[in-house]
Amino acid sequence: MSETRMDPSKSTNSQTPGWSNLIRLLQSPRQQQQLTIVGQTLLSIAMALLIGAGLILIVGENPLAAYAALFKGAFGTGPALARTLRVSSPLILSGLAIAVAFRSGMINLGVEGSLYLGAFTAALAGIYIQGLPPIVHFPLALLVGAITGGIWAFFPGFLKARAGVDEIVATLMLNYVAVLLVDYLVLTYFLDPVIGTTSDRPATVPIPDSAKLPFISEKYGLTVGIIIGVVIALILAWMYLRSIWGFESDMNGFNRRFAHFGGINTIKVDLISMVLSGMLGGLAGATESLGVYGRYVSGFSTGIGFDGIAVALMGHLNPIGTILGAVFFGALKNGGASMELATNVPRDVILVVEGLILMVVTARQLFVFLRLSAQNSKED
Predict the structure, then answer these.
(1) Residues 6+ apart with CB under 8 A from 96
(2) CB-CB contact of 122 with 279 (8 Å)
(3) Which residue range(s) make up the domain with 280?
(4) What are the pLDDT digits (tens) for 53-66?
(5) 247 in a domain, yes or no?
(6) 215 pairs with which residues across the strands?
(7) Within a domain: residue 196?
(8) What total number of domains does the chain contain?
(9) CA-CA distance, 265 to 366, in Å (whole number)?
(10) How far is it, in rounded angstroms, from Cα 304 to Cα 91?
(11) What DSSP designation does 129 have?
C-alpha cells in the first residue's frame, strides 16, 4: 500500500495561512516603522520610570510600592478608571488639536485660548437658545463652541499665510487675550448673580439640562465627551491614511517647498489645519462647560491646551497614539494623587516623575518636528 507524501512546506503553509499573512504584514516597511516607534516609546517610559524610582529612593520610599499605588489609583478599581477617563477626555481633543496643526507644519500654541472661548460660547448657546430638545440642543451648543474656537485660530493662521507673521508668538499671546476677554465678559455681562463678584471663580448661570452632555458616570464626571473624542480620532486617522487632505497636510508638514512645487496649495492647507485645530480646541472646552461643570467657570482649565502638546507628541502626532497618550497622561494625573495619599512621597516628587516621563517620551519627536519646521522656514 503506497503512502502519499506531502511537501512539508506546502503543508505548513496550507495549515497556517494566517501566520504567513501576519509575518508578511509585520515585514512591511510601514509596520516596521510603527513597531520601532512603539518600541522607542516604551523604552523611553521605562527609562523615565527608572529615573523616577531613583528620586523616590532618595526620599526614603519604596519605588515599587509607590508605582503600585499610582497604577491602582489610575486603573485599580472601576471608580479609579472612571476618574482617569474623566481627566483624559478633554486631553484627547486638545491633543488632536495640536496633532492636526503640527502635522501640517503649523505650530499652534493657542489651543488654550480656543478652549476657553469654546467653553464660554457653548455655555451661552446652552443658556440662551431655548425650547430645543436635548438631541438638538447639546449638539448645537457643541458646534457653536467648535466654530468659535476655529474662528479664533483662523486669525494667526491667516497672518502666517499672508504676512509671514510667526504663528508661535501670535498663538501664544492670543491665549492671554482669550482668557482675559472671557473673564471680562463673564464679570460684566453674564455673571451668575447667586455667585456674585465675591467668588474667586466667576461663572455664568447654570446650563439647562437640555444642553448638558449625557453622563456615562455622573458621580465621577465622565460624559460622552470621551466618546466624541475617540470617534473624531478615528475619523482623523482614516483621513490621514485615505483622504487627499490628509496627504496634502502631511506633505506640507514634511516639506512645504516640495509640496508647493508638487501642486499643493500650501496656504489653503495652513488655513484649514489651523481652523480645524482651533475647532477641536473649542470642542474640548465645550465638552467641559456642557459636561461636568454645567456652566462656564472661570479658570476651569488647568492647562488642558498646553498639556495637549505633550499628549500629541507622546502619540507621535498619530490620532490613535494621541488617545493612548491622553489616557497615559490622565493616569499620571489621577494616579499621582493616589500615590501621594498611599505613600509618603511628596507631591513635588510626583510632578518631577511626570515631567521626566513626558520629557523623555516627547523629546525625540519634538526635536524632529522643530528640525522640519526650521527647514520649511528656510525654504520659504
Answers:
(1) 229, 232, 233, 236, 280, 308, 312, 319, 322
(2) no
(3) 63-379
(4) 888 898 888 999 98
(5) yes
(6) 223
(7) yes
(8) 1
(9) 26
(10) 6
(11) S
